[in-house]
Amino acid sequence: MAAPPSPDRTVIENCAIATVDAAGTEHASGHIVVSGQLLESVGPGPAPADLAGVTRRVDGSGHLATPGLVNTHHHFYQWLTRGLARDSNLFDWLVALYPTWARIDEAMVHAAARGSLAMMVRGGVTTAMDHHYVFPRGAGDLLGAEIRAAREIGVRFSPTRGSMDRGESAGGLPPDFAVETTEAALIATEEAIDTHHDPSFASMLRVGVAPCSPFSVSTELLRESAVLARRKGVRLHTHGSETVEEERFCEELFGMGPTDYLESTGWLGDDVWMAHCVHMSDADIDAFARTGTGVAHCPSSNARLGAGTARVPAMLRAGVPVGLGVDGTASNESGELHTELRNALLVHRLAGGATALGVRQALRLGTYGGAQVLGRAAETGSLEAGKLADLVLWKLDGLGHSTIADPVAALVLGPPAPVTLSLVGGRPVVEHGRLVTADEEAIAREARAEARRLARLADGAG
Per the confidence metrics, is the pTM higher than 0.85? Predict the structure, then answer.
């Protein structure tokens, strides 16, 4: 019997390469060979001249190749409510926006997900995550709308089925009409896993379990969600230690801080990651390091809401897995992850001095660190033979980067670099700064129309 044909190969040459592997291997001028959906080889100099089955050759002169960026925290639906509650802290911002968010529906979420994903993907994201926790009655299949949008754009996706069951009448922050019952949330979460989760290697879709936060979720829902996730073999996600108000809330209601409370409900472990983790003591960081609990660091959102500066350098020294997150675009209106590389570095140098975080550490947070946090470091997050061909070719030979000799420094410290090519599993999703999988103008029109419709509904209800 004849051997099956070899997959088509794509060759990228003459580019600087930052592999972000364990050794931090870099090549001033190197090559990448993509075979099918996998990286076949990454190394210095040109690719072998006698490679068979090469269907595309890319001259990467003037470019830096890196792993694709991995976003570890987001709320796609917030694309429709950007620029509101501009001068509020987290709790006031939530109270101002919950009544509007409680009127979203399937068409709105699909439009918002397409907008959020398009903005990230055209800026180098190859693996995206979303935390959706608002499920108004009769709104349609909101998680399915996000999944459909991710499939259309061609990005690797880790949606989490969120939930809230602690409304105002039970001492929570969201209005009662914006929450579910505990039983309904658990049933819907299990159905989402059974319907959508794909645990296979190279999966484009991994579903997680994600009750929203200690101030919007009952202790029962937290505990039972952890049991459900571990029974199903999926990851767990929530918000943790984001603000001093949250810390005060936990102390008053539960008699302990957020980390101790979450640990008491089964919410620390190497299958868990939490967003923000701004107000963490040494003991909290030690607990995360001891259990392998990951952190989604969202520097722009934390700054936008005045939440504070997470102790990321201390977390990294302790061995805590840390990735970067955009967070919802109602608290990070740019909606881009590549700008978070620079913002993370600057924020931590403001807090801890000029050596607090380096350019290569920032790049690692946005790539391998994110893959660790999502449980996908064996598949993506670094450029190594056998891993998925999720990569980005950044253009650094223009005016904005013209006098920065170190390409990694140019990417992190310089202006946002254009994306010449972005591959997800070897498939192009961006070419020359534009999506090739979707019409950006159509996405913008749809999002504007749904944002206006949501605003009308909210105004009418008010």
Answer: yes
* HEC assignment per residue over the chain: CCCCCCCCEEEEEEEEEECCCCCCCEEEEEEEEEECCEEEEEEECCCCCCCCCEEEEEECCCEEEEECEEECCCCHHHHHHCCCCCCCCHHHHHHHHHHHHCCCCHHHHHHHHHHHHHHHHCCCEEEEEEEECCCCCCCCCHHHHHHHHHHHHCCEEEEEEEECCCCHHHCCCCCHHHCCCHHHHHHHHHHHHHHHCCCCCCCCECCEEEECCCCCCCHHHHHHHHHHHHHHCCCEEEEECCCHHHHHHHHHHHCCCHHHHHHHCCCCCCCEEEEECCCCCHHHHHHHHHHCCEEEECHHHHHHCCCCCCCHHHHHHHCCCEEECCCCCCCCCCCCCHHHHHHHHHHHHHHHCCCCCCHHHHHHHHHHHHHHHCCCCCCCCCCCCCCECCEEEEECCCHHHCCCCCHHHHHHHCCCCCEEEEEECCEEEEECCEECCCCHHHHHHHHHHHHHHHHHHHHHHC
Q: Torsions phi, psi of 445, nearest 5? A: -60, -45
Q: What mean pLDDT is reported for the chain?
A: 96
- Tens of pLDDT, residues 257-308: 999 999 999 999 999 999 999 999 999 999 999 999 999 999 999 999 999 9
Query: Which token pair is 311?
Result: 């102790």
- The predicted-structure confidence for 135-169, as pLDDT tens digits, reads as follows 999 999 999 999 999 999 999 999 999 999 999 89
> Mean pLDDT across the stretch 104-126?
98
327's CB contacts (< 8 A; 6+ apart) are 73, 74, 75, 275, 298, 300, 301
Distance CA 129, CA 206 (A): 9
pLDDT band at residue 172 under the 50/70/90 scheme = confident
**What is the pLDDT, as a whole number, of residue 71?**
98
> What residue type is 54 in one-letter code?
V
Res 5: pLDDT: 56
